[in-house]
Amino acid sequence: MKKIKITPIARTKHDALILQYENPDVPECEMVIGKSFYSINAQMPNGFCSSAWQNVYPFVFALASGAKDFYDGWLKNKESAIIACNDGLRPVSFLIEVVNEK
After folding, report:
1. Which of 47, 43, 37, 27 is nearest to 87 (CA)?
2. pLDDT in tens, 71-99
3. Residue-range definition of the domain harbouring residue 33
4. Number of folded domains that form the chain
């Protein structure tokens, strides 16, 4: 299986929804934008958010197994995907890409 790099690249925060629906003692997401994680054999990297893993895992597994060109070329790099976690209040977008080691 191919080594996969997962990088949080953007975060959105819906303040009005947070104020209306979220309990005040919920901790903030700890994902750091730009901090990369590496998946070996399609395993969840240490320190990666387990909730976000549920969303990115199918793409990590597919890329690690050799899949390419998701959704008919929507990304320039055919060995990558951009997937957001399912947090409706503070979604984080992740760049998932194959590490081409020589």
Report:
1. 27
2. 888 899 999 999 999 999 999 999 999 99
3. 4-98
4. 1
